[in-house]
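Quick start: read one record
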Amino acid sequence: MDEKTAPARRRRLSSGRSTVALVCFILLAASGIIAAHTFHPAPVSAQSPADPVARNRAGPAGFADIVAAVRPAVIAVQSKLADGADPDAAVPSLDRFFREFGGTPHARPGAGMTAMGSAFFISRDGYAVTNNHVIEGSASVTVQTDEQKSYTAKVVGADPVSDLALLKVDGRNDFSYVKLADRMPRVGDWVIAIGNPFGLGGSVTAGIVSARERNIKGNGADDFIQIDAPINKGDSGGPSFDLDGNVVGVNTMIVSPSGGSIGIAFAIPVETVATVVTQLKEKGSVTRGWLGMQMQQLTPEIAEALGLKRPNGALVSDTQADGPAAKAGIMSGDVIDAVGGRAIKDASELSKTISRAAAGTSVELHVLQRGVEKIVAVTVGEFPVPRPARAAGKLPETTGRGGSELPLGLRLAPAGTVPGAGKAGVIVTAVDPGGTAADQGVERGDVILEIGGRSVNTPAEVRDALSGARSGGKRSVLVRLKAGETTRFIAIPVG
């Protein structure tokens, strides 16, 4: 994400709006709409983290006392990429609208590629938490404290899955530090974010928790906290605090079509941070249970297409050929709604449950497979360390042969006729933006593997499958799609 300098006029307008907003806030506080909140923190020191404080439900009149207590523990991070390191690998793309907002490498004259981010001390002897993508591929890491003192830091361990890393700064035993909260915040709770936006250091913003349990990675084991505190480039790896001065999340990405803050940011929740940091400190890496399958949420539409009364459980969209799930007989299209006799409400809960299981242990899954209920015993494997995916080849503008227009608003061709698309399935070569498939998120380059449980390899087979669904009186049909390395199911209306 390149920094963009706004025109002077825009900056003046923005400043004016900020001034108006601040005046409104002060007037509201003065009129008593915002109730006063008294905060008496103990200074953050080597002896103890910030002391808890009683909270008024109406919220604080200001955050100055809290900030004064915790800001000394927040540090700026600068990492220099090793020679030959891929700068794009440090900032993996999850979606065109989701962007990590720190760790983006910058070229400086006479210097190598560098990345800037934020971190915070969690112990007086110099252990600090940041994002993995801030330090990934680095040859050296330097941190700068709130006192403007610089130190060399070593990477104790990093976890690409959660995007967390643990640093260690040696030489002192009296760093200011903060502690992790022992409970998750609620939606609507205040949060204070402190970080290093655009290299400015020690910048503070405030907002509320907008949502919890945001699973924006699709089917990952960890959910995110959504906050509306303004977050920008360089804040990545910085903490979000509650009104007790405890860390409730580590800021890691934003939704931003332009690269700047629009008030939608995501933080790694404290429960994940605590689990990952403990393992990183003990052994330098994180181990997780793994079944070798992709899962997705069951929507009401997909549940109806599968003949289910309720969208409970997780839908298996794909299995790895040599993974534990495939070896145990789990197949794409299966629905898993319980583990060890305990009900699973969705894919996120199943991911978390398996992630916490130790490799080598056996778990019993309650599976609905092709309309038949089964109990399947699966031996949990160890989650493999992910590697950056290579960019897919460009889809040709025309496919030449086999193209066919369909009522769903798609032009299709056998996947084997397009280089890099694979041999199985039918590739989407064009999408009508106003068509039915486009409404369900089908995009150019997606490969249709199955329709209604039937494999399809030609446009004619797709047409026949859709006709069969209509003739059978179905209002929607389940379509299995592959986009890059991700496979998912969608329900497309056909009635």
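The first strand starts at residue 74 and ends at 81.
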